Amino acid sequence: MFNMTKIRATNGSGKSFYANHLCSNDYYSEHEKVQGYWRGELTEAFGLRDKVVTSEEFSLFQRNVNPKTLDRLTQKNMPGGPRFFDFQVAAPKSVSVMSMFDERLVEAHRESVRIAMAELERLAAVRVRDGENVRTNNYETTGKLVYAEFMHDTSRALDPQLHTHNVVCNVTRAGDGRYKALETLEMCRAIRYAGKVYHNEMAARCRELGYETVETRDRKGNVIWYDLACVPADVMERFSKRRRQIEKAEAEFIAEHGRKPTLSENNYLSTSTRTDKMLTSTREKVREFQMGQLGHREEAQLYAAAKRAKEHAPVADVLDREKTVEQIRNVIGELYERESVLKLDKILAEVLNRNLGRIKLQELKRAVKEIPELRNLGGNAANPYYAPEVVIERELSAIGLVDQQRDVFDAIAPEFQAFPGDRSREAQAMLIHGLLSSKDRFNLFRGVAGAGKTSTLQEFCKGLRSGDVTDIHLVAPTNSATDVLKQEGFEQSQTVAGFLLSKQKPPAGAYVIIDESGLNSLREGVEILKLARQNNYRVLFVGDARQHTAVESGDFFRLLEDYSQIQKFSLTDIHRQQNAEYRRGIFECAMGQHEQAFERFDKQHFIHEGKQKYLEEAAGKYMEYTEQGRYLNRAILVAPTHEECDKLTASVRAKLKEAEVLRGAGRETEVFRSWNKPKAWLKDASNFQPGMTIGFIRNMKGVSNAGEVTRIEAVDGKQLVLANGKRIFAKGASDFIDVGEMRKIELCEGDLIQFRVNLKAKKIYNGTLARVSADPGKVEILYSDGRPRKLIDMPENYAAFDYGWVTTSHKSQGRTAENVVVAAESLDRKAFYVALSRGCREMSLHCPDKEHLKRGLAYRTGERASIHDLIRDREIPADVMLPLSDKTRAQKAELLPNFRYKDMAVRAKTAMRKVKAMLSDTATLRRMRQHRERLYNEHTRFEVEEHAVGLLGKIVSRITGMFKAPEAVPQESPQADWEREREAERQQNLELACKRELEAQWNVFDGAWSGYVEKRKQYHELHGGGEAFELTDREAAFRKRQTTRLRRGKAPQPLPAWLEKWEDTARTEAEKSRAALTVRLEEAKRLKTAWERADAEWIAHCTARKTYHAELGFRVPFRLWDKEYRYHTEQELRRRSGEFPQQMPESLVNWKTYMDEQKQQELRMFWNEAQKQWEELLAARRTVYEKQHVEAGFRLWPEEEAFAAAQQERRAAGLKPEAIPAELYNWRERAEEEVRQLAEEAARQRRYEAEAQWKWKWQDFDEKWKAYVKNRIKPSRLEPIFQEEIELRRSSHREPPSIIELPDWMKIEEVLDVHERNLKIEEIRRKLGLHPSDEGQPVDPDRKLYYESKREELFRRIAVYDQRTAFEKLPGWMKEWNPSEAHKAKVRNTIYMKYDCNVADEKSLEPLEWLELQNRKIKAKAEYAAYEHRLKVGPATDQQMDELKSFAAAGLLKEWPAEPDREDAEKLLEQLREQERQQKLAEERRRNPMADWQLRTLRELHEEGRLEKIPEGGERCFVCYEIRLREAAEMAKQLKLDYFTTTLSISPLKNAEKLNEIGERLAAEYGIPYLNSDFKKRGGYQRSIELSHEYGLYRQDYCGCVFSRRERDARVAAQENGNS
Question: What's the predicted TM-score (pTM) here?
Answer without folding.
Answer: 0.57
